[in-house]
Amino acid sequence: MEKRQLGNTGLYVYPITFGGNVFGWTIDEKKSFELLDAFTGKGFNFIDTADVYSRWKPGNEGGESETIIGNWMKKRGNRNEVIIATKVGSDMGSGKQGLSKKYILKAVEASLKRLQTDHIDLYQSHWDDQDTPIDETLDAYAQLIKEGKVRHIGASNLTADRLKESLQVAVENGLPAYETFQPHYNLYEREVFENGLEPVCLGNNLGVLNYYSLASGFLTGKYRSKDDLDKSPRGGGVAKYLDDRGFKILAALDEVSKQLKTEPATAALAWLINRPSVTAPIVSATSVEQLESIMKAPDLPITAHEIELLTQESAW
């Protein structure tokens, strides 16, 4: 397993990113610590979260994931050994959202406090904000980089046109440019990224950290009928994949994983890791057992033939 440069940044990561959306949602702090210890114990070093995680859980107000990660880093004394990415812009309630300079400068302080650190390695625009000029957003990031509070910036959930425009505005105004992009992308959800966004990322050498890498668990193979949807809190988001194309993808994953004596999840992640555009897929886990199958993906000896089979069978 080798580290990969994250776009043009000075950050080098192993090709799996731990998704912190589960911290404070489907797992508590104790379990989160256990998984983070297992992840970093295998040498992995990249953790992605957002200020809004996990506001959607009843009783939460947002910031729970960052708080857990901050507590873990303080207890382990390992801040300099891990790379932390978080995001800004989602609705935190009481009008706290968006990408205005005023809001970003306020939101970053809250994230730094929760993470118990003086800097964020990768700070990302979570959602597009068409009410705020792009140069205003980038100017906020320029100030944070100058102050040493943020090392690099990235974006998530932009259209190809908006991503190109953001990169152009940065050049024209001498402002920091997005160096990473975080799209919704996996073996099933291919069309939106590949049909527009992927060429922009490749053409500008953006580090790609795709989320929903296992399609909310569908690509693990544990959801094969509507009766399976009650297996986890995320089951409701899987129903849309139970169609002819979804079953075709599962059949291909079954074939490849059988050949490689591995699990469907591992094979699905190996396909992503071998995409020329992808740097480090984001994956969440709620048990060490799930995490084990995830962490095997970078070293899986998947062949060009097996990659092509998965590519063909998941064609959109």
Automatic annotation (TrEMBL):
Domain NADP-dependent oxidoreductase: 15-311
SUPFAM superfamilies linked to this entry: NAD(P)-linked oxidoreductase
Pfam families noted in UniProt: Aldo_ket_red (PF00248)
Xref: InterPro entries: AKR_Detox_Biosynth, NAD(P)_OxRdtase_dom_sf, NADP_OxRdtase_dom
Name of the featured protein: Aldo/keto reductase
Species of provenance: Flavobacterium arundinis
